[in-house]
Amino acid sequence: MGSDLSGRAEAFGQLYAEHSDQLERAVRRRLGHGAGARDVVQEAFLKLWEKAIDAARLTPAYLHKVARNAAIDHARAKTVRRDAVRDLAELAIPTSPPTPYDAMASREALETVERALEALPSRTRLIFLLNRIHGRTFVEIAGGLGLSERAVAKHMARALSVCERALPRD
Q1: 131-147 burial, b if ≥16 CB within 10 A, otherwise e?
Q2: CATH T-level fold of 1-93
Q3: Looking at residue 28, what DSSP letter applies?
Q4: Which of 12, 38, 129, 167 has the most CB atoms around its CB within 10 Å?
Q5: 96-170 has CATH 1.10.10.10 classification
Q6: Nearest 5°: phi and psi at 59?
Q7: Integer Cα distance of 138 and 156 in angstroms
Q8: Residue 92 — very low, low, confident or very high, per pLDDT cuts 50/70/90?
Q9: What's the rounded Cα separation, in Å, for the pair 152 and 85?
Q10: Where is the RNA polymerase sigma factor 70 region 4 type domain (predicted)?
């Protein structure tokens, strides 16, 4: 079994060496900038490795499709993060200077939510963070963790319920 794994690793290494530069150029064109192109290509190869796809069956066209999809996912996640930061920034702009009481209340609410999240089962907390912080969809999370979308939705509902219960009512 060890030799099968090392043979597979060698085949993937060869495939990466032969196609990574070309795929990186294609990803760079799709993203509109060079930043992150190598990471996107490496992530695409990692996904292929994790799916246990035989390297001998991977055609250049299929590699380009996988890299293109990884670039789209990368751009989408970046947009989600940018929008979340913008939304948080808009919420953070006070209409009047906060009072010391407001600042303390906000800090206490954040600490309360953090404690609530820490008390969640690790898988539920991971799913919450992947969705709300990293912008992953339920489909992506389910595929990555080997769960059904319904199971991911249940974990998210549990996490949101815990956070909601932790916050004081106005």
Answers
A1: beeebbbbebbbeeeeb
A2: Rna Polymerase Sigma Factor; Chain: A (1.10.1740)
A3: H
A4: 12
A5: yes
A6: -85, 160
A7: 9
A8: low
A9: 24
A10: 111-161
